[in-house]
Amino acid sequence: MGGRRAVPAAGKFAAMIEIAALEAEGFVVLPGLLSDAQLAAAVRHADSLLHGVDWSDNDFDGRRTRRVYSLLSRAGAFEPLLTHPEVHRLVAARLGEAYQFGMLFLSAVDPGQGAQSPHFDAGVYPLPRDVEAETNVIWALDDFTVDNGATLIAPGSHRWPPGRHPQPDELVPAVMPAGSALVYSGRLWHAAGHNRAGTTRRALIGEHVLPWLRPADNHILATGPDGLRSLTPELRRLAGVAPAGEYLGFVGGQDPEQWLLSH
Ligand SMILES: O=C(O)CCC(=O)C(=O)O
User: Fold this and answer.
1) Residues 42/77, Cβ–Cβ less than 8 Å
2) Half-sphere exposure of 61 (CA within 13 A, CB side)
3) Cα of 155 to ligand 1 centre, how many Å?
4) 105 Cα nearest atom in ligand 1
5) What is the per-residue pLDDT across 227-239, written as a single tens digit (0 to 9) for each?
6) Mean pLDDT calculated for residue range 55-80
7) Ligand 1 centre from 62 Cα, in Å?
8) Domains of the chain with bracketed CATH
9) Nearest to 216 by CA among 93, 79, 60
10) Which residue from 66, 138, 195, 217 has its CB within 8 A of the most atoms of ligand 1, so it is best to mutate?
11) With contact defined as beta carbons under 8 Å apart, do 18 and 181 qualify?
12) Distance separating alpha carbons of residues 209 and 91, to the nearest angstrom
């Protein structure tokens, strides 16, 4: 009995440390969150989505990088990643209980892709730097190594003032095994690293943003009413169907969830 009671207490303590690290450093790595079966299924799903996809046509996304957006109608084996309770516990600790997906995409950084320009994801919003508008996750579908372009992060940079950019020696690679999650503040400066290896580095990247902001991806339009109806209530909420407040996000004067299920 005593041993059984110790496990949740230890788990709660570990969770508090992760939240404190996320607040203090702007990121936390959750190693090996996925089971072997979940990871293998996610990798298979990634490969099926990437089939026939061309490299991106711009420098930021990466001209040796393949990306797939609008994933919600084909979440498939990504669903356990998109709804992982360990990730959402951290996101809720930073954003509160109500939030939605922002940009959501699969990224395959192929050999020879140079490093991305450093940026912070919440830079798309004209908000003061000290507002935590997003808490995001990068799921490693392959081992993230120094050679294959592990995400470069500038620890503590979520607290930097406007206009302060990272110097090259302030960026460190977030090395982690496949199946791990890098959870980070939308204010943290980071970039995809240079892939000098001979293999592709795949990642599933999900932003979570405050419910009253316009998300980077228009999930409602991309998924459509039928697609939304076929999602679980949790994914529907994350798609942005849930109202952001009493008079924010209703449709036809109704709660959008009820509207969707009655039309
Ligand atoms: O692939 C990565 O490591 C990060 C990509 C990224 O930050 C982005 O494209 O916004």
Assistant:
1) yes
2) 16
3) 16
4) 9
5) 999 999 999 999 9
6) 97
7) 10
8) 2-217 (2.60.120.620)
9) 60
10) 138
11) no
12) 9
